[in-house]
Specification:
The complex is a heterodimer of chains A (about 210) and B (about 210). The radius of gyration of chain A is 22 Å and the shape is globular. In chain A, strand 4 and strand 5 form a beta hairpin. Chain A has one domain. With about 210 residues, chain A is α+β, with helices and mostly antiparallel strands. With about 210 residues, chain B is mainly alpha-helical. The longest helix of chain B has about 30 residues. Chain B has eight helices and two strands; from the N terminus they run H-H-H-H-H-H-H-E-E-H. Classes of the chains: A alpha+beta (about 210), B mainly alpha (about 210).
């Protein structure tokens, strides 16, 4: 009994402060999260339009696509069909995420209408090391993906980063971040492509 | 009575002014050196970081000062950290909601304010020993001194690296940008030269 009393005497302020501070953060988060989500949606839209300039609007696929992650976990991904002014499909986009060096990396990936070539990717959120890992946002790295085949990509340490093929040259000093981006795209792209093919949305002149 | 009020006014004035120059955290005490080196590529992010630090300093000093008589000596560091982490999280959420571009540029450096030793230093040295008014004035003074240092560094680097100040072109057309000033080496060189200059001026004054 005396031990409990001693424990409470020593730590009541810490417990009370944790509760109050936690409540303060929860209230602030509840008040600001709609605005943060809205900002994220606007940014997602801007980044996707940048990758697929012909797209005028995006329609979310009704069917949810489940992707198997490393470790057996499954994640549902929203896939958007990009439509032109004439209502023709000009590509597909999806936002995907995975673990980077410092924190989770969220990407928006776009592919052409036949799911044959990658139209590019953009970074939605990342906390990679400034000056190193954050170079995944640089055009030098991202441009390697534009026009690359929509199949398994391989990360190489050295090579010509202007050559467009399935080999992606890693960023010097940021191998983990480069691996993370290639890994995320490989995990999601191939499985999403398979799902869309199975649903008959691409192939046979569709798309 | 008049002497007492004069004493208080003097105390308040000292608390407010000490951090601006005599105890400037960047130029005189050389503490909290991560943001001066990392976020001073341009004045806008430097100013945003400075204002964020002022907000966190004022809030954490105020709360620490209010609970100073309840603090147990062996729990004070964990209480300071909890307190600082709360206000940094609120600041980070606010930036993500209302200044998303700045939040993206500052990236991990806003959450890293939690481990900025200026804030825990002021909590330990001032707020845990003084009343709320002195603590708030001390936070405003120290935070303003830190912001001023960030803006001076960022101003020099922005002008030399881009020919701009606060995003406005100020250098003539023939100006050749010093790209090195945009890189980490630019931060180290600028800070080193400024510290040397300040040290030389101060010694001359003291002599």
């Amino acid at each position: 009994m005396s031990k409990i009393k001693h424990f409470i005497e020593q730590s009541w302020l810490l417990i009370a402060a944790s509760f109050c501070f936690g409540l303060l953060i929860a209230v602030t988060d509840a008040a600001l999260s709609p605005k943060i989500r809205e900002n994220k949606a606007t940014k997602l839209n801007q980044l996707t339009v940048f990758l697929l300039p012909e797209a005028k609007r995006f329609v979310e696929l009704d069917a949810e696509i489940e992707v198997k992650l490393a470790g057996g976990k499954k994640e549902r991904v929203k896939v958007y069909k990009a439509l032109s002014d004439a209502n023709e499909c000009v590509g597909w986009s999806f936002n995907v995420s995975g673990q980077g060096f410092a924190d989770k990396i969220e990407l928006v990936v776009a592919v052409d209408k036949g799911f044959e070539k990658i139209a590019g990717f953009n970074v939605l959120t990342s906390n990679e090391t400034p000056g190193f890992g954050d170079q995944i946002k640089s055009s030098n790295f991202r441009d390697q993906f534009v026009g690359a085949p929509a199949e398994k990509l391989t990360l190489v340490r050295t090579g010509d980063n202007r050559k467009i093929d399935s080999e992606i040259v890693s960023i010097t000093g940021a191998t983990v971040s480069s691996e993370a981006v290639v890994g995320i795209i490989n995990t999601f792209l191939i499985q999403i492509k398979d799902h869309i093919q199975q649903k008959g949305l691409i192939g046979n002149g569709k798309g | 009575m008049a002497k007492d009020s004069e004493g208080k006014a003097g105390l308040y004035r000292r608390a407010l002014l000490a951090g601006l120059w005599r105890e400037n955290p960047t130029f005189r005490l050389l503490i909290g050196m991560c943001p001066p080196l990392a976020v001073t590529t341009a004045v806008k992010p430097a100013l945003t970081m400075g204002i964020s630090v002022i907000f966190v300093l004022v809030c954490s000093n105020l709360v620490t000062s209010l609970m100073r008589n309840l603090l147990k000596p062996h729990l004070r560091i964990i209480m300071f950290t909890l307190n600082i982490a709360t206000f940094v999280t609120i600041c980070d959420l606010y930036l993500r909601a209302y200044l998303p571009d700045m939040s993206e540029i500052l990236g991990a450096y806003v959450p890293l304010i939690i481990v900025n030793c200026i804030i825990i230093f002021r909590a330990e040295v001032c707020a845990s020993k003084c009343g709320p008014i002195v603590s708030i004035l001390d936070a405003i003074g120290t935070g303003s001194g830190f912001t001023m240092a960030l803006c001076i560094l960022a101003g020099i680097r922005e002008i030399l690296a881009k020919g701009q100040f606060f995003g406005i072109q100020i250098m003539p057309g023939g100006f050749v940008p010093w790209l090195a000033m945009q890189m980490p080496v630019g931060a180290f060189v600028t800070l080193g030269l400024l510290l040397g200059l300040i040290s030389a001026v101060t010694r001359k004054k003291e002599a």
